[in-house]
Amino acid sequence: MLQPAITKETLQFLNLLKENNNREWFTENKKEFKAHEKQVKEFFLSVQELLQNHDDIEKMKMFRIYRDVRFSKDKTPYKAHFAGSFSRLGAHLRGGYYIQIKPGESFIATGFWAPNKEDLLRIRKEFEQDASEMRDILAHPNFKKIWGNLEGESVKTAPKGFDKNHENIDLIKYKQFVFTRKFSDKEVLSTNFIKQVDESFKAIRPYFNYMSDVLTTNLNGESLLN
């Protein structure tokens, strides 16, 4: 059975939407939009099925095409991309997966976009105590080949309560812990794309396993779960 795929017609539609980002055009082309949205959602659901073979996924969310323009200088009403996220299951597992389909700017991402203050402090305290396991994961050749370097916002010098000269301050400074992998339009349209996405997400597991362990234990390694 063939897996659902992203089509060139979908990318072409998104380009047209970018060029005609107004309610009149969108209303006239709503039927075509719904057809592409359905096709992309089927692709995302297939990604979820593959993820379930090697992870526990709580839910898949496909983001709405409508932009919230209340606090934005950009008042265009629609996003010129499709996107979906996949949340890992329950308190035992942490982190999530993300896919964006956009002509010339498609990518997948994974990690922790907005850890709450308790989780952020726990992660920083772990790095303060010992970051060797994290560094081993980041340095692994296969991991680095697929995901590159750790990304995310960070503070300029050191978070409050941490020594700016600490040997692991480069990791402690992070406020987000994210990895991204970009794909060309040619790669997105390939029948192999869904396999590349799944294999990339599978390769992140050592990082997720480590972070789940950190976030469900205290600094003594004792479980915080009931």
Automatic annotation (TrEMBL):
Transmembrane stretches, start-end: none
Protein's organism: Euzebyella saccharophila
Highest taxon in the source lineage: Bacteria
PANTHER family given in the database record: CHROMOSOME 12, WHOLE GENOME SHOTGUN SEQUENCE (PTHR36452), DUF2461 DOMAIN-CONTAINING PROTEIN (PTHR36452:SF1)
Name under which the protein is recorded: DUF2461 domain-containing protein
